[in-house]
Amino acid sequence: MEPPLILLPFLISLLIGYLVLTILLDEEDGDSLLVKIFLAGGLGMGLSGDMTFYSYLLLDQLHPSLVIAGHVILPGLLFLYGLVAHKQRLFKIIPFKSLDGKTAGLTILFLLALVPAWEQAQFFPFGGWDAWQVWNFKAKVLFLGGDNWKNIFAPDLWRTSPHYPLLLPLINVWGWLFVNRAADAGPLLTSFLFTALTTGLLFAALLKTTKNPFSILAALLLLTVPQFNVLATSQYCDIVVAYYILAGVYCLEQSWKTHNKHYALLAGLFLGLLSFTKPEGLIAAGLIAFTGLPVLVLSVLPDKKLVRSCCALLLTGLILTAIPTFAFHALYSPGNQTFINGLTSAQKPADWERLRTIFVSLGQELISVKWRGIWLLLFVGGAIGGKRCFQNQNLLPGLFLFSYLSAIAAYYFINTHFEIRWWLDVSLNRILLSVLPVTAFWTFRAALSGHAEPKR
Amino acid sequence: MTKKPLTTLFLILGIIVLGVNSFNIIRYTARICKLRRHAPYPFMGSHFTGLSAALKNPPFIGYYTDQNLDDIGAATRFAQIQLAVAPTILDLGNTGHEYILFVCSTPQIALNKIKDIGAIPVLKSPSGAILAKNPLRSFHQTGNTRERRDYKKWSRP
User: Fold this and answer.
1) Which residues in chain B are closer than 8 Å to A145, comparing Cβ atoms?
2) Do A146 and B4 touch (CB under 8 A)?
3) How far apart are CA A354 and CA A414, in angstroms?
C-alpha cells in the first residue's frame, strides 16, 4: 500500500491546471465547473511533464529540487496574477453553489462507473507489454539513470521505440518525486487518472454543450466495455493521446462557438502537449490545428481583430507547450528505427494486398465483439445526427477523424517494416481507443442536439 | 421519421446496450477481483528488483539466453526483467560486459556458457537465472542509487 504522498504530485498538477483555467475562463455555472475540473487535471499533468523535461534539457539530468521548485513558483505566480487581474474570479474559485442536484447526481453516477476501471488497473498492476518495454522502462531510466538517462535513445533499443516522445514517462517521473522511488503505484495512478479525466471530460463537455442529462450515456458506455478499460488502464500512452485529442478539439470548438479567444489559447496548450505524447499525437495535433484554424478564422472573420487574437493565442499556446517536442526531435530522438518506405523498397514493397488488409481489418475491428457494439451504436448516432454531424462546430471533429484515420492508414501502408497482419493485431485496437472518446463526443452531440431540453 | 423520435430511438438503443454491458462488466469485475485475491499478479521481473542497485546501477549488463525472443514467453521474461533492472539496460546477446545475466532454459546450459566465456558465476535467482562476472572487464559506476533494496533472495550458484 503506497503512502498518500503518492497523490500529492497529482493534486499539485490539478491546482496548476485549475488556476490557469480560472484565470482564462469566466464561466461560473455548474456544468462549466465540471468541464474545468476535467480540463484542469490533464492540463496540469501535461504542464508538470513539460516542466520535468526542462530539468533534463537545461541541466542534463533530473534535479528533483528544481522541478519541485518550479511546481511551487508557477502556481504562486498564477495566483498572484489572478489576484491582480481577476480577483473576483479567484475568490469564487470553486462555485459549488452553481452545481445543481441533477449535475451532482450524474457526477456521482459517473464516479461509480469508474470502479470497474479501477479494479482493472489493479488487476495488471505493472501494466501491459508496452508499459514494461517502453513507457515505464523509460520513466525508470529517466528517474534513476542520473547521467545515463540518454541511454534510452540508443538505436539498439529499437524494441523500446526510442523515437517516441516522453510526456507520459515524464509525468510518471513527476509522480515519483515526493515518494523518492520508482513506486509501481505511480504509473497505475497516472493511467487511471487519465481514464477518469477522458471519460469525465466526455461527459462534462456533452452535458455543457447539449444540456441533456443523457450525455452521461457516452461516458458510461465507454466505461462498461472491458476492452476500453483494459487498454486505457494498461499504462500505455494511448489514453493520454485520447484525452488531449478530446480536450484540444473541445477547446477549439468552444473558441469557435463562443468567440472566446482564451479557448484558442487553451486549445493551443492542449495541442502542444498532444504533440509530445506519441508520433501519432504529433500528427493529430497538426491535423487538428490545420483543420480547425481555417474554420475558426472563417467563423469570426467579420471581426478581424478577433481573428488575429485567436490565431495568435492558438499558436502561442501551441508553441509554449510544444517546446519540449521541438527539443526532443532536434536533440535526442534517434529517428524511427523501424521504418521501411514501402513505396521505394524493392525487398518490402507496399502493395494492394497490404491496403486491402488494412481496410478489412479496420472493418473487422469495428464490428468485433470485444467492443461490445459501441462502434455500431456510434455509427447509428452519426446516421441519426445526419447533416448535424457536419454543421457548425460539429464540422471540426468530423474533419479531424477523417484526416487522422486516413493518415494512420497511409502510415500502415507505407511503412512495410512490420508484417501487416501482426502490426494491425497489436496496434489497431489502440488507435481506435485513442479516437473513441472524440468520436463519441461528435456523434452524441449531433444526435442529442435534436433532443435538447428547453433552455434554463 | 422526424428527428426527435429517431433521437429517442438512439437513446433507447444506447440504454439497452448500456444495460447489457453493465451486467457483463459487473460479472467480469467480480471475477477479476476474486482471481486477484487468490493469486497475485505473476511478474517475472520480481526476482530481479534491486539487482541493479546492488550492482551500483551499471549503465549496461549483458543478457544471454538460449531461447528465441520470437517466443512470447522468452520475450515477456526479457521485457519484465528489463523493467525490473532499469535504469540498467540489458544488452541482449553481449557477453562482453562486466556483469552478464544468464537466463536460460536450464541452469546447466547457463553454467556451460559461463564456463565457455571464462566468466565467474556470482549469484543465482530462485527462478534459475545466473548473474556472472566477467573478470577482465570493469566500468565506471554512475547514476542514481536511490533504489537500494535488500537483494536477499538470490544465492550462490
Assistant:
1) 57, 59, 86-87, 143-144
2) no
3) 9
- Per-residue burial over B66-89, b if 16 or more Cβ lie within 10 Å, else e, is eeebeeeebbbbbbbbbbbbbbbb
Radius of gyration of chain B measured on its C-alpha atoms: 24
Specify whether the backbone of B143 is left (phi greater than 0), alpha (psi in -120 to 50) or beta. Answer: left
Cβ neighbours for A99, distance < 8 A, ≥ 6 positions apart: A30, A33, A34
CA-based nearest residue in chain A for residue B94: A156
Residue A340 grid cell: 521501411
DSSP A6: G
CA distances B4 to A26, A202, A219, A381, A441, Å, are: 33, 23, 22, 12, 19
8 Å CB contact between A196 and A174: no
Which residues on neighbouring strands pair with residue B90, listed in sequence order? B61
What residues of A are in contact with residue B28 (Cβ under 8 Å)? 116, 226
Q: How far is B75 from chain A (nearest CA, A)?
A: 10
- Chain B residue with CA closest to A212: the answer is B11
Distance of CA A215 to the CA centre of its chain: 20
Interchain proximity B86–A144, CB inside 8 Å: yes
Contact B61, B86 (CB under 8 A): no
Q: Report H helices in B47-98.
A: 51-54, 72-85
pLDDT tens, residue by residue, B81-106: 999 999 999 999 898 899 999 999 99
Q: CA A135, CA A131: separation in Å to the nearest integer?
A: 5
pLDDT in tens, A373-416: 999 999 999 998 888 888 777 888 999 999 999 999 999 999 99
Report the residue from B4, B59, B87 with minimal CB separation from A140.
Answer: B87
Tell me which residues of chain A, numbers 377 to 406, contact chain B at a CB-CB cutoff of 8 Å. 377, 380-381, 384, 386
pTM of the shown model: 0.93
Cross-strand bridge partners of residue B63: B92, B101
- Residue B130: name the closest of B146, B108, B150 by CA: B108
Angstrom distance (rounded) from CA B29 to CA A254:
37
Chain A residues 185-224 within an 8 A CB cutoff of chain B = 214, 217, 220-221, 223-224
Half-sphere exposure of A277 (CA within 13 A, CB side): 29
Cα(A8)–Cα(A40) distance, integer angstroms: 15
Cβ–Cβ of A120/B13 closer than 8 Å? no
